[in-house]
Amino acid sequence: MVNELRWETRLLVMVTAVLTVFGIASLYAAATLERNAFGFFSRQLVGAVIGIVSLVILGRVDYRRWRTLAWPILLITIGLLIIPLLPFTREISPMRNGARRWIQVGPLSFQPSEVARFAVAAWVAMLAAKKGEAIRGFKRGVAPFLVVLVIVGLLILLEPNLSTAVLVLLIGGVVLFTAGAKIGHFLLIGTAGSVAALSLIWAEPYRLARVRCFFESCGQGNFQLDQALLGFGSGGLLGVGFGEGQLKLHYLPYAYSDFLFSTIGEEWGFLGVTVLVVLFAIFAWLGFRIARTAPDPFGRYLAAGLTAATSLAAVLHMAVTLGLLPTTGLSFPFMSYGRSGLIVALASVGVLVSIGRARNSRQ
């Protein structure tokens, strides 16, 4: 039985390695016309090395320690999320592309919202395991989670970063669902959340324009999506060839981050896109399988949350680039440019490996 369990963590690491290597290569190809394409490549490579080291270390650390660290990590994350919102922190949190999402201290630059994905998964898992059957109630069960999740989501939203705020709330929802929260509570929360989301979209002209352009043609407003779909169409079955794509020639903004999946579709074609979808499906299957067989409730909930953090981000990124959701900026896990996101994603896999290894000790 021990060997039957170990193959899951090994395959999970293999899938992660393939996605990371393929992502770095695709990133380099997509950023060739940037001022310093090698700089993009080298910075992402540094992030990959740090992330891999984190994966190896955390894979050998008892995941139960995160239960004790959940509150400190959450409070530190909330503090980091507040920093970009303060008017006197512009020196370490400059405006980029109309948003203040980064903290930069010397050569160190990261997005606190990326850390929030892990922090929320760990904290919700910890509290859900502690509450046990009480999670099925609303006042003492679900309500305390909502308070914290709304605070974290609101701080991310104020950056502004609606897509990541929604993703963080979804991660919390997956953990609560895994812990046994009632469907009726989710329906109530979903209704309230939908009303809030519509209000937030209506409050910002650029968000309203994106939604309007999603449902109807509006010329230049659909430029990114039109170019992304053109990339998929140009790729055909086998693609135009690695590094030969035309989208990156200033036709598609953020071809190396928010729309990397489209760039991959152009250069690797339908076959390459299918392989990626299968790899992420395998990742999700392995992650939730580890969650299902975890040795304790905390491990089960934590594995489910971390798996959802990666899987949902991948699904949302692919859906946006395929025109199935309104255009929004959400990175492709393991692949899009961004060191902090890559490091957190790889570190999360390390925790999943730790949970998978712990199952063997109970056999």
Describe this structure in words.
With 363 residues, the chain is an all-alpha fold. The chain has one domain (2-360). The protein is 70% helix and 2% strand. It has 12 helices and 2 strands, in the order αααββααααααααα. The protein has helices spanning 2-30, 37-60, 65-82, 112-131, 138-157, 162-179, 183-203, 205-215, 223-235, 260-292, 297-321, 339-360, and strands at residues 103-105, 108-110. Strands 1-2 form a two-stranded antiparallel ribbon. A hairpin with a 2-residue loop joins strand 1 and strand 2. The longest helix is centred in the C-terminal third of the chain and has 33 residues, at 260-292. It is globular. The mean pLDDT is 86.
Can you describe this structure in just a few lines?
It is built from 12 helices and 2 strands. With 363 residues, it is mostly helical.
